[in-house]
Design a protein that fits this description.
alpha/beta; Rossmann fold; 6-stranded mixed beta sheet; 37% helix; globular; P-loop_NTPase
């Protein structure tokens, strides 16, 4: 497999008024092309920080990390990834189409290419026909799908997602989990996904990275034995419950560092 993201002995320490905060310590991880990797752990364990390091939004203080064989900064300049935040972050004065077009406008795509990509990504996230609507006219789940469409608009190979469904109710979340798996299957993207939910991590991922409380260390990396085709009721199978149990045990083991 082609390794897309590689972290070696990665450290990140924030300097604060109360002294140093060790957010990541000795993190080693390889993410291969086409992987769906979920990061799970308690609040403050460095899940989001690790994602932000990949995206060149935070700078590590030790170790190395490469994205597509280059530094995260070079990968960012090469437009290697789209990033989906916890909140949809759509501009209320722009239509859904206008929000999705924004990165394309910044990157200098011509009007015809913009229109074509907006139409394509709206179809990918099942929002065809909503281009002229404003964010306030859409439900929370639809707004998050529009946010995913914006991250997909320039067709980056890597999609980094920071708890995109955390604020949604369980029924909507289940539906979006199904849609995201479908999207991943159709596009072949490499996805890094932060979550607090064990069922969500197990349902979505080819690889689950379990992290300990601060300083963020990786306590387990679980290769999923589940098939690529995953109806929601797979969550009731012994195989699913076995993986969920291992994630739970990894989280418990991580707390023993305290």
């Amino acid at each position: 497999m082609n390794t897309i993201i590689s972290a070696n002995n990665l450290d990140l320490t924030f300097q604060t008024n109360d002294g140093p905060v060790h957010a990541l310590k000795g993190v080693n991880l390889d993410i291969d092309q086409g992987d769906f990797v979920s990061f799970i752990g308690p609040s403050g364990c460095g899940k989001t920080t690790f994602l932000r390091v990949m995206a060149d939004l935070e700078q590590p203080t030790g170790g190395t990390i490469t994205v597509n064989g280059v530094s995260p900064r070079e990968a960012r300049l090469n437009r290697a990834y789209g990033y989906v935040f916890q909140a949809a972050g759509l501009y209320p004065w722009r239509t859904i189409g206008g929000n999705i077009r924004l990165p394309l406008e910044i990157m200098g795509y011509d009007k015809a290419a913009q229109a074509e990509r907006v139409e394509k990504t709206l179809e990918l996230v099942d929002l065809a026909g909503f281009e002229k609507k404003f964010p306030w006219q859409l439900s929370g789940g639809m707004q998050q799908r529009a946010s995913i469409a914006r991250a997909l608009a320039f067709d980056a190979d890597i999609l980094l997602m920071d708890e995109p469904f955390g604020a949604l109710d369980e029924i909507v979340r289940d539906h979006l989990n199904e849609q995201l798996l479908n999207l991943w299957d159709r596009t072949g993207k490499t996805i890094g996904f932060v979550t607090h939910s064990i069922p969500e991590a197990v349902y979505l991922s080819t690889k689950i990275v379990v992290m300990s409380p601060r300083p963020g260390r990786i306590t387990d990396v679980i290769e999923s034995p589940l098939p690529k085709e995953r109806p929601l009721d797979i969550r009731d199978t012994p195989e699913f419950l076995e993986v969920a149990h291992r994630v739970r045990e990894g989280l418990r083991a991580g707390h023993s560092y305290d």
